Structure prediction request, 386 residues.
Amino acid sequence: MRPKHLACSLDDSHRFDAERPATTCPHDGAPLLVRYPRIALDRSALAARTASMWRYREALPLDDNEEPVTLGEGGTPLVRVARLERELKLEAPLYVKDESRNPTASFKSRGMSAAVTRAKKHGATELVAPSAGNAGGALAAYGARAGIDVTVFLPRDTPPILIEECATYGARVELVDGLIDEAGKRAAAHARTNGAFNLATLREPYRIEGKKTMAFELVETLGSVPGTIVYPTGGGTGLVGMWKGFDELQEAGWIGAERPQMIAVQAEGCAPIVRAFASGAETAEPWEGASTAAWGLRVPAALGDRLMLQALRASSGTALAVGEREMRDEMHALRAREGIDAGEEGGAALAALRALVASGRALPGPVVLFNTGSALKYGPRSAGAS
Ligand SMILES: *Cc1c(COP(=O)(O)O)cnc(C)c1O
Prediction:
């Protein structure tokens, strides 16, 4: 559906034309959110459609006759993991939403499909983004699909497989000394000097439109909202996107006011949102010396910090950090005991769930863990690393 307008996430009276290229709010720098006339998403019409996330096209930024830039992203399996469920002594059913099954093997493809579709419509001749790894590969693939040049800024120590992935999809790769925040500055400067569209997390409003479809799929598959969502969190597009998605499902009449508790999982070596949540802060201070083998979680500062913290609190959720050994062990548990292609981020989600069970926290069901990407994308793990 054609968006009505873009609204500032900090002050809804700041509104902008959605038919023009968008960045952040020019008044306060806050992320913009896409608003639609009225979301009418007829469940009975869905049966005949493709399994991809574009089956929800009435709730996505797409004109009536427009074709999206797609590789079949979304429609990922929701796998019941009964063995782990018993082992954890959960009373509620436990599922893994397996996002490793997306094009380019991570959930980044959902956001990039939506963002590249919009950028193409708005006449982009070049796309740029910083990436901790998976966003770059997804952007490179969707840029190739759209026939638009791509430049990706990556930290120099990014696993070689991820760098090669971007390059083999035809993107120009720039390696940066520093982390994704430094890469973000370089990408923004590149966008300014070359007129490239910057698709950095929440620097434009469309990646979260793709991510919100994870909430749509959960409700469509389960028939109701889950009770608990455990989500490995970096830049926050998934958390913020799903939270927006539940509001839109309510508007469409699929659900009522009920919401899952949203639980953000970060690594002990990079946990700015966990720290801000615990201190009651509205925004997060940048994390110094960020380090973790969960590359998708190595995000020391996020533009969406305020939106993430709002969603966690509004959902009566929480945020917790897990250690490197725990996430690695639980990655192996998901792989060896359930056959799921979990990476460190998915392992972090299971480690967090185990900690929450041990702490006695109430976990309304169904409980959904997100496995956000494939383990194969980071290449061989160094021998003996814990
Ligand atoms: C990017 C990424 C994350 C964090 O994603 P956000 O939704 O932006 O917080 C988690 N896991 C993997 C595998 C990623 O690539």
Summary: The mean pLDDT is 96.
